[in-house]
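User: I'll paste a sequence; please echo it back and then give the predicted structure.

Assistant: Echoing your sequence first, then the prediction.
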Amino acid sequence: MLLIYLAALETEQERHKLAELYEANKAVLLRYALTVTNSREMAEDAVHNAFLSVIKHKETLLALSNEDFRIRAIIIVKNKCIDLTRYLHRQ
């Protein structure tokens, strides 16, 4: 999955920073998403959608320290979990 995210970035510096942040935070974000959704599939989707959002807002998010990024990423994952839950309940 990481390769997909890296392909969306323009510079080697952005790719390196995202790879570093992804490896440092993917397990924490997935565990958090699992506690919110109680579903491995939904948790993985939420984390995936969160990293797509990170890429969309890369100028702001990639400039953060690792600790600040983790805090922001947890909030993004929480919101993505809520979005997925709402979407499923509408069906």
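Helices lie at 2-7, 12-37, 40-56, 58-61, 66-90. The mean pLDDT is 91.
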